[in-house]
Amino acid sequence: MTETSSLKKTAGQGTLNIETGLHWKMDHCMNALVGMAFADNDSGGWQNESAREAALMKLLEFLVPEAINVDLQSTDKEGVIREIVGGLQRAGSVSATESESVIKAILGREELGSTGIGRGVAVPHTRHPSVEKLVAAVAISRKGVDFESLDEEPVFVFFLLISPPNQPGPHLRALDNAARYLREDSFVESLRHAKSSDQVLNLIRSMDQQHGTN
Q1: Cα 63 vs. chain centroid, distance in angstroms?
Q2: Which of 108, 117, 135, 191 has the greatest number of CB atoms lying within 10 Å of its CB?
Q3: Taking residues 189-208, what's their average pLDDT?
Q4: CATH class for the region spanning 3-211
Q5: How many angstroms separate the first and last alpha carbons of the chain?
Q6: Residue 118 φ/ψ region, left for φ over 0, alpha for ψ in the -120 to 50 degree band, beta for the rest
Q7: Measured over all CA atoms, what is the biggest interatomic distance in the chain, rounded to whole angstroms?
Q8: Mean pLDDT rounded to a whole number for the chain
Q9: What are phi and psi of 194, to 5 degrees?
Q10: Would you kindly state where each structural domain of the chain is located, as residue ranges?
Q11: Can you give the C-alpha Rg of the chain in angstroms?
C-alpha cells in the first residue's frame, strides 16, 4: 500500500468515526430531551415498552399546518423562537396576549441546555397553561442559525412543541416521536429542501405511515 493510499484510508476511517460519533451524540441528546420530559412527568412515564409503543401518536395529530414556515428569516435563537411562535399565534394556536409568556418559557427551557441536538436539528419545547392542547410547528432556515447546538453546527430544521402542563403524556409522546423521526438523515435532508408547507406535510405523513403510529 502506498503512503498516499494509506493516508486516504486513514482519513476515510477518521471521517467514519466522526460521523458515527455525531450520530451517537445526537441519539444521546434526543434521549436526554425525552428523559427530561420523563423527569417532569408526575405520572411516572411509561410503565413498560409495550405501553410506550401503544401510546405513540402521529405527528400530524398535533402539527399546525398553518404555522409551517419553510423560509425562516431570523438569524439568532431568540428571533427564531419568536418567529415560530408568531406563526402559531397567527394560526390561532397561541393567543396574542400569551405569546410573549410562551416565548419566555421556551427561552427559559433553552437556558437549561440547548435543544439543538446536532446535525442541523433543534426541538425547542415547553409546557404552558395558555394552550389547551398539544401544538407544534415545523420551520426551516435556508442559511442556518446558531442555536448553540451539540455539534456547534448551524440549525436548519426546527420542530417547536408546546403543551398544557396538565397533559404530560402527550408532551412526552410527541418528543418521543419527533426524536425517532429526526434521527433519520434522509427525512431531515428532505425537510431542509422542502419548498412549501404541503411538501412538509407530505414528508411527515409519509413518516407517520412508515413508523406505523396509531
Answers
A1: 12
A2: 117
A3: 96
A4: alpha beta
A5: 54
A6: left
A7: 69
A8: 81
A9: -65, 135
A10: 3-211
A11: 18
